[in-house]
């Protein structure tokens, strides 16, 4: 089941339930989620003969970027001075170039899928824990949506 940024109840944002430490985690998570497109490009190079998987990887990347957008938009509500573009410009070079990596960073297609499965399960757990820990209702909804997406992403990579 897909969701959009327009479906998030942004008007329910409750500043009184904001935790400054959680805000730091959300800002960082938004940066990581934005890397989906670069990693999808990397995966499409590895699976260069599998058009169905490539389409799945591109769809996955769009969802990851949406996660980053949702988290950044929430962070902007919590901290009106937050500009996700500035840290993103600094973050991308620090993470290294994914798109120019050798055909597989994990040694094989199976290795890539195992790594992706582990990341998606871990990320789903992270957002579920964050959802359970926060009191702010908009962030709780965003985390609920992202955690569910990450399990669907796990299934994509597991079934490949």
Which helices and strands occur, and which strands form pairs?
Blueprint: H1 20-33, H2 36-46, H3 51-78, H4 85-94, H5 109-133, H6 137-158
Helix pairs in contact: 1-3, 2-3, 3-6, 5-6
**Major beta-sheet overview:** none
Q: Say what oligomer this is.
A: single chain
How many strands appear in the DSSP assignment? Answer: 0
Low-confidence stretches: none
Average per-residue pLDDT, rounded, comes to 89
State the helix count. Answer: 6
Order of helices and strands: HHHHHH
Could you estimate the helical fraction of the residues in percent?
55-70%
Distance between the termini: 20 Å
Over all CA atoms, what is the radius of gyration? 16 Å
**Residue fraction in strands:** under 5%
Mass-distribution shape: elongated
Which structural class do you get from the secondary structure elements? mainly alpha
């Amino acid at each position: 089941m897909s969701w959009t940024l327009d479906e998030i109840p942004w008007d329910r944002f409750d500043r009184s339930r904001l935790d400054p430490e959680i805000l730091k985690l959300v800002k960082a998570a938004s940066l990581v989620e934005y890397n989906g497109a670069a990693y999808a490009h990397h995966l499409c190079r590895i699976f260069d003969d599998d058009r169905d998987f490539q389409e799945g990887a591109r769809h996955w990347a769009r969802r990851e970027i949406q996660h980053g957008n949702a988290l950044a938009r929430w962070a902007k509500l919590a901290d009106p001075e937050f500009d996700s573009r500035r840290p993103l410009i600094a973050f991308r070079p620090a993470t290294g170039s994914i798109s120019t990596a050798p055909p597989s960073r994990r040694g094989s297609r199976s290795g890539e899928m195992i790594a992706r499965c582990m990341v998606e399960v871990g990320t789903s757990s992270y957002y579920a824990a964050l959802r359970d820990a926060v009191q702010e209702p908009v962030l709780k909804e965003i985390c609920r949506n992202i955690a569910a997406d990450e399990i669907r992403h796990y299934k994509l990579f597991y079934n490949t």
